[in-house]
Amino acid sequence: MLKRLIQTVSLCCYLYFVPAWSQSITERFSADPSPHYFQTAKGGQFYLYATDDASNSGKYWDSVAWRLYTSSDMRHWRDAGVPLDVTVFKWARPDAKAWAPEAAYRNGKYYFYAPIGGDKIGVAVADNPAGPFVDARSDALVDKARDANAGAEPIDPAVFVDRDGQAYLYFGTRVPKVVRLKPDMVTLDGPILDVTIQGWPASDPKKKYGEAPFLHEHGGRYYFSFSTGWPGQIVYATAASPLGPFSYRGVVLDYLPISTNHQAIIEHEGRSWLFYHNNLLPGGGDYRRAIAIAPLEYDADGAIRQVVLSSN
Ligand code: FUB
To answer: Among 61, 95, 153, 164, which residue is least crowded by beta carbons within 10 Å?
Structure first.
């Protein structure tokens, strides 16, 4: 009881004194956060890859470049510019839309998973998390026209590397997909599978998978979070394996007044954080989104406590 009271008070103080954390990270419109803590020869820091809403038309998510932000403390973020754009992939149209990115580290290399044009996912590689990135293949890693069971819209890649070294790629709208990656991180290993989620609350027909799959592990459980659609509530399910089957558990973040949402969850130095996007920057809206961060907490039974925001 005392522990819970101390946690609640410290969280309230935290939110009161650092309101910007639950608002917008930067002054630039960006969305679909992919946050990572990477250790390089220069030391460790956070790298946040994003869809760049500041360079889209304002009428659609039609930017052709991704954006990178860095931070040593998650409070102060530096705009580190464009880590890559779609022209890195010679097989892609130069005007193809660049959507929700993902990054991963393995064996001294940094990998960037790039959904392009709504029907392909490319993968680029670099020696440094800020780039320069080059195409790691000569074709797409996932291609709707080529790969069986890639789904109607292979977008929103999310990579999870398990403790045993096995890497998994999650992606897709409307039907969540998962496929193993080979240790090279740039080759699919086996068939693309549907992710199974059981136990949806029958009372709520809006509870269905939409987009933004994300997998993390906590306390030996695998948490599969995602957006329910357009607009999207961020919900989660858990399983004993990264491949599922997952059981629906509850809401992480309720609907915000914006057409999409897209989350990521990271743990650093014993604390957990939810990254998402909102419309709170001046001039913000469905195509002018802004990334925000909020503390994330678990109950003793592993349930995620719903994040309740003071605004939006
Ligand atoms: O940024 C374009 C799309 O909006 C992303 O792929 C989805 O996750 C949604 O946030």
So the answer is: 164
69 CA → ligand 1 middle, Å: 18
* Per-domain boundaries in the chain: 31-305
Helix or strand holding residue 116 (H, E)? strand 109-116
C-alpha span between 284 and 303 (Å, rounded)? 32
**pLDDT tens string 24-76:** 577 899 999 999 999 999 999 999 999 999 999 999 999 999 999 999 999 99
Q: Whose CA is nearest to atom 9 of ligand 1?
A: 260
Q: Can you name the CATH fold of 31-305? A: Tachylectin-2; Chain A (2.115.10)
Q: What's the distance, CA 13 to chain centroid?
A: 27
pLDDT digits (tens, 9 = 90+) for 246-261: 999 999 999 999 999 9
213 alpha carbon to ligand 1 midpoint, in Å? 11
Beta-bridge partner residues of 64:
none
Phi, psi of 249 (to 5 degrees): -120, -40
CA 156 – ligand 1 centroid, Å: 7
